[in-house]
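Morning. Coffee machine broken again, so started the prediction first thing and wrote up yesterday's gels while waiting. Chain of 625 residues, entered below exactly as on the submission form.
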Amino acid sequence: MNGLDTPFMPLQPLVEGPGWIGIMSQWVAWKVLHLPQFLAPEGEPFWLWQRGQRAPKGLKAIAGIGYKQSSAHARVLCQRWGLTYIALEDGFLRSSSLGIEGDTPMSMVVDPVGIHYLADRPSLLENILQSPDSLRPDELQSARQLIELMRRTGIGKYNNAPDLDPADPLGRERPLILVVDQTAGDYSIPGGGLCEADYVRMLDVAISENPDAEVRVRIHPDCIGGQKPSCLLAAATARGVALESRPVSWASLARRARRVYIGTSQAGLEALIQGVPVTCFGLPFYAGWGLTDDRMPIPRRRARPDLVQLVAAAYIRYSRYVDPLTSLPTDALTIARQLARQKAQDAEFAGNITVLGIKRHKQHNLRRFFSSRWGQLKFSADSPMLLAEVAAQSGTLLVWAAREPASLKARAQASNVPVLRIEDGFLRSNGLGSLNAPALSLVLDRSGIHYDASAPSDLETLLEQGAFDPATLAEAARLRERIVALGVSKFNLKSNADHLVRARPGQRRILVPGQVQDDASLRCSVTHLHDNLALLRHVRSNAPNAWIVYKPHPDVEAGKRQGNLSEMLLHELADQVLPGADIAQLYAQVDEVHTISSTAGFEALLRHLTVVTYGTPFYAGWGLT
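Came back before lunch.
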């Protein structure tokens, strides 16, 4: 959730009263990882083993997969016992990968009325759409945001493929018509009033109605490798119609089309969201409302919702979501943003990426940040042939900025190899990297690195040129408040002792955080002060009456890095030395922070303290310090 979103509202139960929910399908019990969360408003799900004439005590409903044959026994028992049957199905923003690949659903629909893909009976979704004016303003606002996000990022039900290359000529030189295939045996085909022969008829109509266009059949991903039979593969081949079977996202293909023809596939809904006209030969849940060109009537659908109302009904109210990071119920926008972030990371690190000079025990953690389903990440040491090998693969080099070989930049430019630089992020970990605490945050820079003011960095460019939208600024404000309220810092080294600053009432209190002697930000800073001793002497000289608190750097305290000062010098220059203190506790006890280039200055800014810098850290020079 960002700062402009409506807070997640707990869902109301669709089946009233106390009791538990029976589960009879092993697939549901084993494969739907967050089933208790999806069914939480209705009751706790339990395995139903009793099949007699009377319902077990406390059972109020039975849940199964849709209206498929596998759930027939559950529906029979519901009729026998006078209970509600709850149909479960994948939601419309399901997962990053395909269900057939074992990816657990992030979204499900829970329907005690019918199920959305059966047009011969009402469903909860159809009932919502019959009264579009009942949708709340917050649901409509969420739908607008979701439409914008889906158009901008191209996410959909499945998100396992990259976008079509923008340079691809498809649909540019000649109008494109896409006919969407489905797997033979899909329950939504008879559920939407069609048989497999109707798909061949749909293909012929698409060809005859668009003589000036290139007609292509979008083969279902499950049919490409022969895992499942296709409705259109043989017919398209016999007619000489081109197959669109490339592993690219549906949204990026649909946007190239003049029109999309579908039987009952959800691809039609996603094409509508992308602003593409859709012709429906069957009766999917989004047909019959005036938004599609329908070749089969369904008179009972009398309402005329607009696209925002359709999306609000299907994605916001009808579908339920569970955050895989927290295992808690959440909303459509949270899941959509997670899917978009995963897709963006996969796209950013597609291709061949070679990581230079990372120790073996840290390689696993790096994979968590930079792996891509569409790329290959490998680790290497620098060598005379490395850049030639990377260039031959049209690859990219990833290097830890502080350990970048001096000649690498020039050699990479000569070989036309892009170099990405990484460093610890500003909320790094619970513990020190020098003690092998894994990084939970990294920064990535394509032009320089944030601590080196001698050249531009991506962060500097963002601050100079970036136009931040209100939602991003609101989210940043919330994040700052959370960081301060929780006492979070870069390393989060909590202390069992309370370290109190012992200044007199009203006395000026200055915190001087120590830095590692060979810290890259020190080496790259433009400053006349080059170490902790020079900094302390300067601060004491300029503030003789202030209470100066010196906090040694935790890496120095741990004996992992250089930067120690003698106790005699410390007591001469500082009024109080607090080794082992939680720096987040100290911020609330001082008025100012003086530093050469420490990240502590940035953390102090977040707490509205006065910050004086003697070097050129990334947060200096903007009028804030």
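The radius of gyration is 30 Å. Going to sketch it on the whiteboard this afternoon.
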